[in-house]
Amino acid sequence: MDEFETCLTKAEARRISGLTTPLKIQAFLDGIEYSEEVRYRCPLTVLRDMKGHCFDGAVFAAAMLRRIGHSPLILDIIPNDNDDDHILALYRVNGHWGAVAKSNYTGLRFREPVHRTVRELIISYFEVFFNAIGEKTMRAYTRPLNLKEFDKIHWEINDASLDAIGERLDEIRKFKPLTPAMIRNLSFADDRSVKAGLMGAKAAGLFKAKKPNAKR
């Protein structure tokens, strides 16, 4: 973090000085613009642009969680081929897991640290992990990745380092919470849930889902 801190202007240092809890970090992410751009922003660039998508937001949150004593952990929730991945920053309090996240969907953001296992935390996202047509798309998730592994490539201040983080997420162990039978029998989210999930969404940042042959 010393490298990150030395890059900050006085105004930037003041801006993050109040990010002293996971909930305050979440509030910061909620207050920045959602990015629909096909590019990555490191934590320093997120702070300067006040903009980011879920990957940028999770990496920023991991950096801010590190500042207050947590390990900089992220995790990738992997969908079927009709949706985007979603990245979380993870934290633990008294052995229980919570999460901070930037999302274009209302339900895919903060989680209180009340989940006994990572799997329990991820399943809390299942019912609200749907695409713009209401298809429930969660299929797998990675083990937590500690971004300390990328300190040598300056992940907190170097945009290009996020490519390496993305590649590592592709490589690490995946867990599949659903059986094939479960997937075959999934219903769609109801219209009210979809409307709530998309409240305030930036349309340009939504995955262009195709309507599959599935049960409603």
Features of this protein?
single chain, two-stranded parallel ribbon, 34% helix, 9 helices, 9 strands, 7-stranded antiparallel β-sheet, alpha+beta, C8orf32 fold, 216 residues, globular
What would you call the structural class?
Answer: alpha+beta
Q: Which regions are unreliable across 5 or more consecutive residues at pLDDT < 50?
A: none
Total strand count, please? 9
Q: What is the straight-line distance between the termini? A: 48 Å
Order of helices and strands: HHHEHEHEEEEHEEHEHH
- Radius of gyration, CA atoms, in whole angstroms: 17 Å
The CATH class designation is Alpha Beta
Question: Biggest sheet: strands, sense, closure?
Answer: 7 strands, antiparallel
Please tally the helical runs, counting DSSP H or I stretches of 4 or more residues: 9
CATH topology: C8orf32 fold
Total domain units: 1
User: What amount of the residues lies in strands?
Assistant: 15-25%
Oligomer: single chain
CATH architecture: Roll
**Mean of residue pLDDT values:** 96
What does this structure look like?
The protein has 216 residues and is an alpha+beta fold. The protein is built from 9 helices and 9 strands. The longest helix is centred in the first third of the chain and has 14 residues, at 54-67. The model has no long low-confidence stretch (mean pLDDT 96).
